[in-house]
Write a structure and sequence with these properties.
This protein has about 280 residues and is mainly α. Helix content is about 80%, strand content about 0%. The chain contains 14 helices and no strands.
Length: about 280
């Protein structure tokens, strides 16, 4: 029973739910969810790819997680590294296979995601900003994945830009949270290489740019007033609060709390663009 729990937990089910919704919304904001079968296939393909990525990330992060997150399935001993590698390979293969049933472009994107996510876990995660950019870019492409699956990507690209900036800021916050374990393992992330204040400055700049950009789809009549109402109260005001909070609270547990709050706020952003499109 513990092993089954480990196989499920290592995929990070909450993240998978967000990935499914992101891809679905990426298709929906283009004006229609048709062809629905293609969109759903893309959603499930993305979920399996994300599950594989989360699993292989834990494999490469085992030494760090022993310090930062000892309750994760691998450091807790729920499953072995070999089992996790095999599980990740299976998940990636299923995700790629499902993409074949959608569109050739989606299949190529799935292969690119797989390579990029493995490269991130193997090397880029421990570098200054490159790992952050990689994760943010792949996460933002979930919307494009949905748009391509229904043959329309214009609006999906706009939402993808917002998602990129949001994830970029969140990834730097996670680097702040993981500094202790990353430093032990010799990782040169932004806060380790240039300091906590430099990381906070980057988060401030990215978040401020995102807040300003969120008004454009309403001004350009791409999204309606429902979008503006939800995104202002639920995303922009949250980001302003985040910028004050991160300057007043500078402990890893506070940064981890912020990262978790941002995960919930992703759902608010998804609701805004879904109802406002």
């Amino acid at each position: 029973m513990n092993r089954i729990k480990g196989f499920i937990q290592i995929t990070r089910p909450v993240n998978l739910g967000i990935a499914f919704l992101s891809i679905f919304v990426g298709g929906a904001v283009t004006g229609s969810i048709q062809p629905l079968a293609s969109l759903l296939l893309a959603c499930f393909s993305g979920v399996f790819l994300m599950a594989g990525a989360n699993t292989i990330n834990d494999v490469f992060d085992l030494a760090i997680d022993r310090i930062n997150k000892p309750n994760r399935p691998l450091p807790a001993g729920l499953i072995t590294q070999q089992q996790a590698v095999l599980w990740a390979g299976f998940l990636f293969l299923v995700g790629i296979a499902l993409s074949l049933g959608v569109h050739l472009v989606v299949f190529v994107m799935a292969l690119g995601f797989t390579v990029g996510l493995i490269l991130y876990s193997y090397r880029l995660k421990s570098t200054v900003l490159w790992g952050n950019v990689t994760v943010a870019l792949i996460a933002s492409m979930a919307f494009v994945y949905g748009g391509v699956s229904v043959g329309r990507i214009h609006t999906a690209l706009i939402v993808g830009v917002f998602a990129f900036l949001f994830h970029f800021a969140r990834e730097i916050i996670k680097d702040l949270e993981d500094m202790e374990g990353d430093r032990v393992q010799g990782a040169l992330t932004l806060p380790i290489r240039f300091g906590v204040q430099a990381a906070i400055n980057w988060i401030t700049g990215i978040s401020t740019l995102l807040i300003l950009l969120t008004f454009l789809p309403y001004i350009l009549h791409i999204f309606n007033w429902i979008y503006l109402f939800i995104v202002f109260l639920g995303v922009d005001c949250f980001l302003i609060f985040l910028l004050f909070f991160i300057r007043k609270n500078n402990k890893p547990r506070h940064w981890g709390q912020l990262a978790r709050w941002m995960k919930v706020d992703m759902l608010v952003g998804l609701l805004a663009v879904f109802l406002g499109s």
